[in-house]
Amino acid sequence: MPRLLRNLIGLAGFFLLWEGAVQTGLVRREFIPPPSVVLSSLAELLGDVSFLRDVIATMLAWLIALGIAVVVAIPAGLLLGSIPPLQVATRAIVEFLRPIPPVALIPLVILIVGGGPEAKITLAVYASVWPILFNTVYAMAEIDPVLTETAKSFGTSKSRMLTSVALPHAAPFVFTGIRMSAAIALIVIVSTEFVAGASRGIGNFVLEASEGGGRRDLVLAGTVVAGIIGYLINEGLERTGRRLFAWSEVRTEVVK
């Protein structure tokens, strides 16, 4: 059975359980509307220009944040992985910064860069840099010494070693880091839009829908859209990774 079909069957089963729990009174409709209502609201939202602008704002911020994280983390990971003393010297500051939740930095980031889209992009970059950085450093440490010694025996220069030996070896690990960071960046952007009250975005839409009378069907519809986007991003990157790195045994592994 194709993987996509199995995923859809699992999703349909979840919606059936949800619908049954509400219809039988196990879950109160006032708190959680049934999926039949939520999906109907979602269909209406897909024709709402204002909501589509919110989705575009979130996706644009996600794309910019992930791009910046890739540009920053890969060279930094290659540098730290190539120079062990530098990696040791920076370990304390990295381990100090990495566990700090991005949401805890919202007041500081708003103070520094303002409350516009820059805030959610900055926080998403901060959160998504680490998986790419650590996967790159890990990949550099896992290079087979036989490969490097063989290259050295042929007089290969350091720059050639980097492009012909290190980067091809590290690529599957780095791509896995990018796939992890893609999900993290989306979570942080939507969370920041919700907590900090951005002018546009899915998080802002959910926040406005939950205020006043509380249109819970719209709140859940916005949440479902965020989940669908996250699923499509991960599925797309996973398929791309399998196609690009079919030769690698680590293409689906996650380095923690």
Task: Describe the model.
With 256 residues, the chain is mainly alpha-helical. The chain has a single domain (33-243), classed as MetI-like (MetI-like fold), CATH 1.10.3720. Helices cover 78% and strands 0% of the residues. Helix 6 packs antiparallel against helix 8. It is globular and about 70 Å long.
User: Beta-strand level of the residues, as a percent range?
Assistant: under 5%
CATH topology assignment: MetI-like fold
Question: What would you report as the Rg, rounded to the nearest angstrom?
Answer: 22 Å
User: How many domains?
Assistant: 1
Helix percentage = over 70%
The geometry reads as globular
CATH architecture: Orthogonal Bundle
Mean pLDDT: 87
How many DSSP E strands?
0
**Number of H/I helices:** 10
Return the structural class.
Answer: mainly alpha
Q: Which consecutive residue ranges, at least 5 long each, have pLDDT under 50?
A: 252-256
Largest sheet: none
- The H-level CATH homologous superfamily, spelled out, is MetI-like
Family: Belongs to the binding-protein-dependent transport system permease family.
Transmembrane segments: 55-80, 92-115, 121-141, 218-234
Subcellular location: Cell membrane
Domain ABC transmembrane type-1: 55-237
